[in-house]
Design goal:
Elements: E1 4-5, H1 8-18, H2 20-28, E2 34-40, H3 44-60, E3 63-69, H4 75-87, E4 93-96, H5 106-112, H6 124-132, H7 140-152, E5 160-164, H8 171-180, E6 184-188, H9 195-199, E7 204-207, E8 225-228, E9 232-233, E10 239-240, H10 245-248, E11 254-255, H11 262-281
Parallel strand pairs: 1-11, 2-3, 2-4, 5-6, 5-7, 7-8, 8-11
Antiparallel strand pairs: 9-10
Helix pairs in contact: 1-11, 3-11, 7-8, 7-11
The structure holds guanine.
Length: 287
């Protein structure tokens, strides 16, 4: 395997350990960071994600609470819950697990979260801050991808970065973060003509579409850094990323595995953001 494996699990453990001092300083001021997760419906993947986030909180010294609602919950009941959490001084971070059921307007629910508690970074105020290069909460997955790239020592300035996937959660914010590091960024999507021709130009290739093994070896430049954001459950119950790992690892220079790559970093960055939100609540500005 010529590609260097970027181990997200061990980096995530390091990032979480780095929060220890900040958590102790907060404790000395009588503050324990608290995260509230809002979970609607029975989507099995969402349940696993929320459980993993709550477990990571508990392991790191962050208080966590989960507010569960049935699939058919009304928007007003959900907005009432968010308003209560906004006003609760023990809650520093709020996350609304996505996707929400169709009858709910996700944009309206996300807009109701106080930007100071928006540890997922999905509120327009935080996404706008990212666009303008001002301090704010950056969504966990793109922030985690940047930490992985930095940790692996992947050069970014002047390099071609190609992101496959244009979501507001991953693709678009990640493009802004890579741009801040002086990469030349291309975002591809379902209407992109000759996707392989574009991805083959990439020095840094990020797959974030949710299509199992979409990225084959023929789509990757030799020596490229390939970051796999996808988590897809196959018919046999196993997990696969958006990258054909077995094939691409022979071509790439660096590669992230699934599981154990980006996923644990998303959770670690959520913890970082929750600690920052707790600090913000006692007057320490975001940087
Ligand atoms: N659904 C998929 N990814 C995420 C995430 O990072 N946060 C939330 N809240 N929902 C998601």
């Amino acid at each position: 395997m010529p590609a260097k494996l970027i181990d997200g699990k061990s980096l995530a453990a390091m990032v979480r350990a780095e929060q220890k001092d900040a958590i102790e300083s907060l404790a000395a001021r009588g503050v324990r960071p608290g995260l509230a997760a809002v979970l609607v419906g029975d989507d099995p993947a969402s349940r696993v994600y929320v459980r993993n986030k709550a477990r990571a909180c508990n392991e790191t010294g962050v208080r966590s609470e989960v507010h569960e609602f049935p699939e058919q919950v009304s928007e007003s009941a959900l907005l009432e819950c968010v308003a209560r959490l906004n006003a609760d001084p023990r809650v520093h971070g709020i996350l609304v697990q996505l996707p929400l059921p169709r009858q709910l307007d996700a944009a309206r629910v996300l807009a109701a979260v106080s930007p100071e508690k928006d540890v997922d970074g999905f509120h327009a105020a935080n996404l706008g801050a990212l666009l303008q290069g001002r301090p704010g909460f950056v969504p966990g997955t793109p922030a985690g991808v940047m930490r992985l790239l930095e940790h692996a020592g992947v050069p970014l300035a002047g390099r071609q970065a190609v992101i496959v996937g244009r979501s507001t959660i991953v693709g678009k914010p990640l493009a802004l973060l890579l741009l801040q590091k002086d990469a030349t960024v291309t975002i591809c999507h379902s209407k992109t003509a000759d996707l392989a021709a574009v991805t083959r130009q990439a020095d840094i290739l990020v797959a974030a579409v949710g299509s199992a093994k979409l990225i084959g070896a023929d789509m990757v430049k030799a020596g490229a850094c390939v970051v796999d954001v996808g988590i897809n459950r196959l018919a046999d119950g196993t997990l696969a990323g958006d990258v054909d790992f077995a094939a691409v690892k022979e071509t790439a220079g660096w590669i992230t595995p699934v599981p154990g790559g980006v996923g644990p970093m998303t959770v670690a960055m959520l913890i970082v953001n929750t600690v920052r939100a707790a600090e913000l609540s006692i007057g320490k500005p975001l940087v």
